[in-house]
Amino acid sequence: MGLLSDPQSRERVLLFLIRHNSKLCILCYALGLVWFLLLPLPPLSAPTYISENALLPGLVKREFVGGPQALSLSREFAANKALVGGLPVEWLNKTMTSLGLEVHTQTFAVDLPFPDEINERYHVRGTNVQGVVRARRAASTEALVLHVPFLPEANDQAMGLALSLAAHFRKQVYWAKDLIVLVTEHDLLGIQAWLGAYHGINLTSLGVRSSELGGYCGALQAAITLQLSSDVATSIDLQLHGPNGLLPNLDLPNLVHHLCLHAKVLCTVQELLPPQEDNAWWQSMHIMLLQALGQASTKPASEHGLFLRHRVEALGLKAINSHRQEKASLEKLGRLLEGVFRSLNNLLERFHQSFFFYLLPSLQSYVSIGNYAPCAAAILVVLFLCAVELWAKLNPEKERRTREAAASNPASIPWLSVIGSIVIAHGLGIALYLGPLVAHQRAANYFDLPEDEAVSLTALGIGVSSLSLPHRGSTPQGWIWLKLFALLELGMLLLALDLLNFPLAFMLAIPTVPAAVVSQPSHKTASIALLLVASPAVISLMGLAMKTELNPHGPTSGQLGGFIGLFLRWLQCLSQSILEHQSLGTNLYPLFTLGLFPCWLQLWHVALWKE
What we know:
With 611 residues, the chain is α/β, with parallel strands linked by helices.
C-alpha cells in the first residue's frame, strides 16, 4: 500500500506498466493458456477422496436380492406403456400402492414460447407420479429422491429397478430419511414442474402451470436420476453439470465412484474410459474439455441438473451396455444403488465438506477452484493492463481539456462523443434479446419457415445488420474513451462470470481478449479479422464444432457433415438456447445478447472509427 500511496512510487509503477505493457500482456495471456494445459498434471490435479466420513456406511455388505422382481416389473411397465401409448399412470398407482408406497400424482402444463421442432412439442401436457417410503426413525423432516424420467422408447429397466428397490427399502428399519420414487414426463419440463410445486415456487413466468402435490416430505437432501434401458450394463456413466454450469458437491460423484469400485462395476465420466498411462495427459484433457464444454453450454447434462438449482445435491447415473465382456445384472446395479442411498441416509447435515467448483480430468483426480482460477485471471488481467495504458495516454491532457471544455460548448467534452456508441450498442443488445421472440411469428409467416428457424434467422439478421451502423466520432480521442469503457465492461463481465461458470468465462476470454486489445483504427485490418473471430456467433460456432469433434460418439447419424451441416446444427442450437432460456431459465442467450454482444459491438465501432 505504501508503494501505491507514494506519488513518486506510483508514477514509477505506472511508467513500468506503460513501457512494458505489450510484453506483460503477451506474457499473461501465454501464462493463462499454458496453465490450463497443465491442469490435468500433478500437482495442479490431486487424487479424489471422500471428505464426509458419514458417507462410508454404504460400503458395507448390501442385502438387495430383487433382480428378478425388477426384471418382471420392467416387462410389465413396457407392456402397459405400449398399451396406453404413454406413461401408464394407473398401472404405476396400482403397482406402487401394492408395494406399500404412499402414492401421489401431479398434472402439469407448459406453454412454450414457440414450437420445439426437435422434440416435436409446443403445448405440453403431462403427469408426474411419486411414491413415498416413509422413514420409520424420523418425522419426515428430510428426504432422498430416486428419479426415473419417463422416456417413450427407453428406460423401462430403470423403472422396474426403482420399484423393486422401493419395495426392498420399505422393509428396512434403518431409514432416517423419507425416500421418494419420482417418475416424471417430458424430461426437464416435468421435473421442473414437480420441483416448483414441491418448493412452492410460482413458475408462471416460465409458462408452467401445475397442480399441487398430494403429499410432501421433508427438505430434499440429495437426488439420483437413473437411466437404464437394458437388462445388463457394462458401465455406469456419471452425468454431472446442471443448468448454468452448476455442479454437485464433489463428495457425491466420489461416493458413487468408490461404490462402483467396490462392486467391480466400471464407472466413467463423459462416457470415456479412465485415462491410461501411455496417453494420460490427452485422455485427461479430453475428459476435462468435454466437461468444460458441457458447463459452458449452460444446459443440464440430464434431468438431475434442475435439483442443483434448489441446493439439492444431485447426480445422473446412465447405465451403458456396450460390447465389453464384464456385465452387471439388475441385481448388481440394485445393490450399487442400495449402497448409495444407505450412505446418503447416514448424512447428518447437507453436503458441505468437499468442493462445489472443480474440474474432473478423471474420476481418480480433480482440479480445485484454487488451481484453475489463475488461468482465467492471468488472461483477464490483460484487459486491465490495456485499460491502464489507455488511461495513462489520456491523463496528461485531462486538466487542459477540462479547462477548454468549461470555456466552450459542453458538448465538446471528449467522453460525450462516445455516449452515442455506448447507448446504440446496448440498445442493439436489448433488440437482439427481445427481437426473435417478438418478430419470429411474422417472419415465419412471411418467409414460410418453421417458427424455430424463424427465431434463429431473426436473431442472426439483427446481429448482422448491427454491423452496418455508422462509426463516425467527433473528437480525435473519442475512440480511446470508447475502448477504455469497453475494456472495463468486458473485464468486469468476464471476471464476474469466472466466479460462477469458469469454463464459459475462460472460453470467451481466449478469443475476445486479443481482439479487444488489438482493436483500434490504425490497425483496421487486424482488428476486423480478430473481432470477427471473437464475435458471439463465431465463438458459439467454434464451441459447437469442438464439442462435435470431441464427442466420443461423433455426429448424430443422419446429420449433414462439413460446414453446412455445422451451420444448420448451430441454427438449431441458437433456437434451443432461446427456448431453454424462456422455459428453463438458462443464462447463455441473455449473457451473449445483453453482455457480450454490446461489448463486442463497441470494439467494432473502435476498429471502424472515423473522425
